Amino acid sequence: MLEEDSRREGEAHAPGTAPGWEGVRELHPAVLRSRLEAGDPLVVIDVREQWEWDAVRLGTAQLMPLGAFARDSESLAHTAEIVVYCHHGARSLAAARYLAERGFTRLWNLSGGIDRYALEGDTTLPRY
Asked: What is the mean pLDDT of the chain?
């Protein structure tokens, strides 16, 4: 059960070490914050629109709006550990699945998006 939980929330194993990790896994906001603070080499992708990005964003993120994601994501390294997020997690899950279909294997979807991150990861961030 612990391994199954880690696949949903990314808490039991170090990323990339859980058996059979491929495709998209959910990453809990508190775990993302901890990994960002530790300086882990994550590629953080925001698939929201420019106006959402302007309202609030994660400092290390790259903006790749979903409408241009297919083109913009061509620059991503297949070996990178990638975290994708949006407002609540639906758009980012679609984007992460798109990457998985193209051979990316180290993919995280930020569980609950930046809204949940503002509630459970960094409460100083504004919500919209």
From this structure: 88
